[in-house]
Amino acid sequence: MSRIMDEMIKEYIDECAAKAIAEVSAKIAKENVERTKKMLKDNLSIEKLLNTADFLLKKSRN
Q1: pLDDT at 62 (0 to 100)
Q2: Torsion of the alpha carbons at 36, 41, 47 and 53, rounded to the nearest 10
Q3: 1 DSSP 8-state letter
Q4: H helices then E strands: how many in the chain?
Q5: pLDDT tens column, 21-31
Q6: How far from chain centre, in Å, is Cα 18?
Q7: Residue 23 is inside which H or E element, if any?
């Protein structure tokens, strides 16, 4: 009987561990998506600034 209980406890712990790992992985993935969105937004802003600077530089040469 003790062996059966030990096996049931081990299965329960394994299930809890798997659930915890999945939750942490999902949280990390969500954070990575948000970080990537911010980085892309920042890159677009930088690109716009560079395009504006390039336009003004070309305009000032004419």
Answers
A1: 75
A2: -140
A3: -
A4: 1, 0
A5: 999 999 999 99
A6: 20
A7: helix 2-61
**Separation between Cα atoms, residue 29 and residue 36, nearest integer Å:** 10
The pair of structure tokens assigned to 14 is: 């394994």
For residue 35, give both structure tokens. Answer: 């970080």
Radius of gyration for the chain, computed over Cα atoms and rounded to the nearest angstrom: 27
Q: Confirm whether pTM is higher than 0.70.
A: no
Tracing tokens 């999902």 back to the chain, one arrives at 26
Average pLDDT, the chain: 93
Question: pLDDT averaged over consecutive 10-residue blocks of the chain (62 residues)?
Answer: 92 97 96 94 91 90 80
- Token reading at 57: 């530089």
